[in-house]
Amino acid sequence: VKNSFIGDGCVINGTVKNCIVFRGVTVEKGAVVEDAVIMGHSTIKAGAKVAHCIIAENAVIGEDTIVGAMPTDTEKGVATVGPNVTVGAHAFIGPNAMVSENVKDGEELC
Predict the structure, then answer these.
(1) pLDDT, tens only, 34-72
(2) Which stretch of DSSP H or E encloses residue 38?
């Protein structure tokens, strides 16, 4: 954990940088969360990469899933995942995507 605010009751076994993480969040081993806001009781599964995004409460980001991307000269969007949404394993959520429904394993949303 580096340069982040971590709420009570969080379990952080992955990497968290420049984030606000609300109460009761779990970041599993091998997950990387950077420049993000993760709201209460959400879970970031093992191997997931979450960058420059907002994850609402009670969301689940599946194993080896990519959500968002760090800003570049051509891409500056923020990805958002709504409350109670489950994003399946190996999915890809692009930097401008707004997700309000569950995402199947391996699905891509840009």
Answers:
(1) 999 999 999 999 999 999 999 999 999 999 999 999 988
(2) strand 37-38
pTM: predicted TM-score of the whole model, two decimal places: 0.95
CB 44 within 8 A of CB 63: no
Cα torsion 91, 36, 72, 96: sign:
positive
Give the integer Cα–Cα distance in Å for 76 and 44: 22
Angle at Cα 96 formed by Cα 95 and Cα 99, nearest 5°?
A: 100
| Amino acid, res. 89 | A
Q: What is the DSSP letter of 103?
A: B
Do 96 and 102 touch, CB atoms closer than 8 A? no
How many Å apart are CA 89 and CA 21, to the nearest integer? Answer: 22
Task: Fill in the amino acid letter for 22.
Answer: F
Measured CA distances, 72 to 24, 34, 39, 50, 108 (Å): 31, 15, 25, 16, 20
